[in-house]
Amino acid sequence: MTSLDTNVVVRLILGDDAKQAQAAERLVASGPCRVAATVLLECEWVLRAGYGLEAATIAASFRSLFELENIEAAEPTLITRALDAYAAGIDFADALHAKQRAPGETFATFDKALAKRAGKAGLADITLIPV
User: Exposed end of the chain (fewer CB within 10 Å): N or C?
Assistant: First the structure.
């Protein structure tokens, strides 16, 4: 099993550097590969801030990535749940953080926008800390 770095995943998604994209494709074709949640977190930032991609495009790209043969998520349930919340309008980092809670735990935040959107995105037990 090979764990993939952010730059490898970005090449697989964008193909913006032909040589690196081909090398990444060969690597994935050679055997099973895994992508950590932290790598996706960084990929989301790179794709959004560096390449100007919209959340819907990024979410679709991540889902397509995991449909490829030989690529799996290190934490598939977490990633699926975070992508669902992301697609519903929650920041990807916030979605990952909130979805890593243990059952019965609340997620405390000062982020009013997150607390407001949480219910629509399937994030229960988000607590806005009063100030």
Answer: C
Strands 107-109 and 126-128: parallel
Instruction: Judge whether 71 and 89 are in contact, CB under 8 Å.
Output: no
Phi, psi values for residue 107, rounded to 5°: -115, 115
Please give the average per-residue pLDDT across 12-24, as a whole number: 96
How far apart are the C-alpha atoms of 6 and 3, rounded to whole Å? 10
Residues 79 and 73: beta-carbon distance below 8 Å: yes
Phi-psi region of 53 (alpha: psi -120 to 50; beta: other; left: phi over 0): beta
Using alpha carbons only, how large is the chain's radius of gyration in Å? 16
Sign of CA pseudo-dihedral 1, 58, 60, 77:
positive
Question: Is the separation of the CB atoms in 58 and 52 below 8 Å?
Answer: no
